[in-house]
């Protein structure tokens, strides 16, 4: 049952990812990308990471995609049917195919280390995924977490300055 | 829980599709979305391996990747708006002012 569910989600994820690449209209691409993000959130739930799924839906499918759709509508780009929307399709597809073959080869041939960490499914269900993540983030990864705030500040200032009419 | 390899293969497929999109599309916003797709494929690898190894570090890293993606979205889209104001287009083929 779970395998069937996994296969269906995989099918939807791959088809919508292909739609992102092939759709002529950027709005359609954006909607297909939202669909892919939801599929990834489903994978996170299946991997016992509900907090990651929630963040995926809120940050990616919510915030980032709204930003992208706003920009598409703000720029109001006309979809010109006569103009080609892609270039060097054959070369790009060959490179992408070789990327896939290469990574699949590595995945098939390599052996992953056996589980050695403290985290188990039982522990996640008992303590809650969010609490585990929060505990880890505010103790071991406190400094990277604080540096993240500087990164976001730089992004805010950069976006405001770039979007001004006159620099 | 599914086999770890199936998640990794799905992630590899999504990453390759993103690569093809970045290499072949002309519209800068669509290229940007394909980059987001590639970042998400990597996130899936992180979460799957983190769950497999029983170690939370990978999921913390996913959090940081999401932060970087958000910052990138803000700055990248502002750049595109600035470019559109200059050139009335966001095709990457029109970005050639620094081309030798």
CATH architecture of the largest domain in chain A: Up-down Bundle
Query: Class of chain B, according to the CATH hierarchy?
Result: Mainly Alpha
Average pLDDT of chain A: 89
Name of the CATH class of the largest domain in chain A: Mainly Alpha
Strand content of chain B: under 5%
- Count up the helices of chain B: 3
Query: How many strands of chain A?
Result: 0
CATH architecture of chain B: Orthogonal Bundle
Question: How far apart lie the N and C ends of chain B?
Answer: 53 Å
Task: Describe the overall structure.
Chain B: InterPro entries: NADH_UbQ_OxRdtase_chain4L/K, NUOK/Mnh_C1-like. Chain B: Belongs to the complex I subunit 4L family. Chain B: Its EC number is 7.1.1.-. The complex is a heterodimer of chains A (167) and B (100). By secondary structure, chain A is an all-alpha fold. Chain A has 2 domains: 1-78, Four Helix Bundle (Hemerythrin (Met), subunit A), CATH 1.20.120.1200; 118-167. Chain A has helices spanning 2-22, 26-46, 50-75, 89-109, 121-127, 129-137, 142-163. The N and C termini of chain A lie far apart (58 Å). The mean pLDDT of chain A is 89. Chain B has 100 residues and is mainly α. Chain B has one domain (4-91): Orthogonal Bundle (Helix Hairpins). Chain B has helices at 4-24, 28-53, 57-87. In chain B, helix 1 packs antiparallel against helix 2 and helix 2 (28-53) runs antiparallel to helix 3 (57-87).
């Amino acid at each position: 049952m779970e395998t069937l569910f996994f296969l269906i989600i995989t099918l939807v994820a791959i088809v919508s990812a292909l739609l992102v690449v092939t759709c002529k209209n950027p709005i359609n691409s954006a909607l297909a990308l939202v669909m892919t993000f939801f599929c990834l959130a489903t994978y996170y739930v299946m991997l016992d990471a509900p907090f990651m799924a929630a963040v995926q839906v809120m940050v990616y499918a919510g915030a980032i995609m709204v930003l992208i759709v706003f920009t598409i509508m703000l720029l109001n780009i006309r979809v010109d049917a006569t103009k080609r929307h892609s270039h060097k399709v054959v070369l790009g597809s060959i490179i992408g195919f070789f990327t896939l073959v290469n990574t699949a080869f590595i995945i098939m041939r390599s052996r992953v280390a056996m589980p050695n960490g403290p985290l188990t499914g039982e522990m996640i269900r008992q303590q809650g995924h969010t609490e585990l993540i929060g505990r880890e983030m505010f103790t071991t990864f406190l400094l990277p977490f604080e540096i993240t705030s500087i990164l976001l500040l730089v992004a805010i200032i950069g976006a405001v300055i770039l979007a001004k009419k006159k620099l | 829980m599914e086999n770890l390899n199936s998640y990794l293969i799905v992630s590899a497929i999504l990453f390759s599709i993103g690569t093809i999109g970045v290499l072949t599309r002309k519209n800068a916003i669509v290229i940007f979305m394909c980059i987001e797709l590639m970042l998400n494929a990597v996130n899936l690898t992180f979460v799957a391996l983190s769950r497999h190894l029983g170690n939370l570090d990978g999921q913390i890293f996913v959090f940081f990747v999401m932060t970087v993606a958000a910052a990138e979205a803000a700055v990248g889209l502002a750049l595109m708006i600035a470019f559109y104001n200059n050139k009335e287009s966001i095709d990457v083929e029109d970005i050639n002012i620094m081309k030798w």
